[in-house]
Amino acid sequence: MKFITNGLIIREQNIGEKDKLVTVLSEAGGVIKAFVHGAKDIKSSKSAATGLLSYSRLTLHKRKDAYLISDAKTIKIFSGLRNSIENMYSAQYFCELAAVICPKEAQAEEQLKLILNALYLLSENKRDLLIVKPCVEFRLMCLAGYMPDIMMCSNCGEYEKEVMFFLPKLGQFICKDCYEKNENTEYKIKLNPSTVTAMRHCCYADTQKLFSFSLPGNDLKVLNFCGEEYIKFMLERDFKTLRFLKGLL
Ligand SMILES: [Zn+2]
């Protein structure tokens, strides 16, 4: 069976001297693994088009339980990412995250669009990575069915309080009054009203407006930490590329 789809190369592994195995976040088939024969030949047009972080038009053939890429044409390479090691690690972290939580063998158009937008904004230096990263983290989680319940305090239903706590193990907000009144000991992260608004934005905003918000530096760090902690507890794993990135920030 042959099909053509656009996809982003999110992982690249060498197989022997000439071939490689790539993981693709594809529009039509979600996350798929595919072999590329002769990929190391630099004269081959497939070589660049199947490199990590290339967005390409791919011709795929299904052979038993493995895919083979017979043709690949580059649509976009985010070369500006190479100007910043932090942006490069962020891009690789988004890929690692996508490989884990995006659908397999099912269409993943929205997830792909989200990550392509994020890579574009970082590559062209149009947004700070501390803005881009929590948008990708929370939105990918929402698309994967892990939408946090952060419209109001999970106990009293208040929409806005001076201090709210985010409970990353539950994906909920609780206001300070309810937390203290109930002698709660659940692991919490303290948020001011603007950080609360920003987290809601990351989860609920229209796709076109997603990356358009601002937050003071310290609050932005807290928002980023919330995204990381939420993913850590929900998926019960950590990400190598995120560890590298955090070592640089
Ligand atoms: Zn409350």
Keywords:
elongated; alpha+beta; binds zinc ion; OB fold (Dihydrolipoamide Acetyltransferase, E2P); 8 helices; de novo design (two linked rop proteins); single chain; four-stranded mixed β-sheet; 249 residues
Could you explain how this protein is built, in words?
The protein is α+β, with helices and mostly antiparallel strands and 249 residues long. The chain has two domains: 1-77, Nucleic acid-binding proteins (OB fold (Dihydrolipoamide Acetyltransferase, E2P)), CATH 2.40.50.140; 85-249, de novo design (two linked rop proteins) (Up-down Bundle). 39% of the residues lie in helices and 27% in strands. The chain contains eight helices and nine strands. It has helices at residues 45-49, 85-101, 109-123, 129-143, 176-181, 193-204, 217-235, 240-248; strands spanning 2-15, 19-26, 30-36, 54-63, 66-77, 149-153, 164-167, 172-175, 189-191. A five-stranded mixed β-barrel has the order 1-2-3-5-4. A four-stranded mixed β-sheet has the order 6-8-7-9. Strand 7 (164-167) and strand 8 (172-175) form a beta hairpin. Helix 6 packs across helix 7 (217-235). The longest helix has 19 residues, at 217-235. It starts with a strand and ends with a helix.
Map the helices and strands.
Blueprint (H helix, E strand, L loop, with lengths): L1 E14 L3 E8 L3 E7 L8 H5 L4 E10 L2 E12 L7 H17 L7 H15 L5 H15 L5 E5 L10 E4 L4 E4 H6 L7 E3 L1 H12 L12 H19 L4 H9 L1
Parallel strand pairs: 3-5, 6-8
Antiparallel strand pairs: 1-2, 1-4, 2-3, 4-5, 7-8, 7-9
Helix pairs in contact: 2-3, 2-4, 2-8, 3-4, 4-6, 4-7, 6-7
Zinc ion binds next to strand 8 and helix 5.
